[in-house]
Amino acid sequence: MSDTEVVCRQLGCGTAVCAPGSAYYGAGTGNIWMGYVRCSGTEQSLTQCSYNSNPDCAHNEDAGVVCSMEGPSISLISSYSTVSAGETVQIRCSRSASRCNGNLLLYRNGVNVNSEALSFLQSSATFTLSNVDSSHQGRYTCAYSSSSTHSRSINITVVVLQKPSLSLETSKEVSWGRSAQMRCSISTQHLGGTFTLQQLSGPLPSSPFLKWTLSMKEPTTAGIKQGFLDVNSHPPKVLLSTFL
């Protein structure tokens, strides 16, 4: 198995599993350049092992190698692991070696949910979860098709946020050019996210609607996040939405 370990190391395909002989994967053709290979198991390539360059071998004796493949890595491309229903999440599975063909598999809670075939030149695959709902929630891992170990896991949490509330901190009637302060709030224990304030009607300068985005404060003891916005015009009718 020492020779097999060196082959798998040279290919970057993990550790040796077995070395079937007698042309198990089919007989090769052409000249045989290496025979009676003897490796200690620490070499980085077969050329560092001792061998006979003029062997009296035949292709029906060709050796095969089965490698374990190193486990791939997993990363979350999206900004947050906690998302609102309807959003899109992207997960990237990567491998350290790019000289082995095969598939990268995506698992959720131990069940294969997607796969992508890779050529020997590719080192990663991106999986997109669109319009997520509660069925997408869970623990995700990556694995390589050649019996590799799984990557570390990442958790995706899908939440349904309650409808946010909007209130005016000043009078509903404000003189043109004066400031009107609005309060946006929502009760949630989830960190991060933004409020988006959208103007639905009223005098508009150049576009069909205006949007203001403000960061939410940390939750209070009651779990309420709030944001404030000054609008230097008559208060428009607004639609308020939140997302993590």
From TrEMBL:
Domain named Ig-like: residues: 72-155
PROSITE patterns named among the record's database cross-references: IG_LIKE (PS50835), SRCR_2 (PS50287)
Membrane topology type: Single-pass membrane protein
Keywords carried by this UniProt record: Disulfide bond, Glycoprotein, Membrane, Repeat, Secreted, Signal, Transmembrane, Transmembrane helix
Major subcellular location class: membrane
Disulfide linkage: 39-49
One Gene Ontology molecular-function label: serine-type endopeptidase activity
Superkingdom of source: Eukaryota
GO biological process terms held by the UniProt record: zymogen activation
Protein name (Swiss-Prot/TrEMBL): Ig-like domain-containing protein
Biological classification of the source: Eukaryota, Metazoa, Chordata, Craniata, Vertebrata
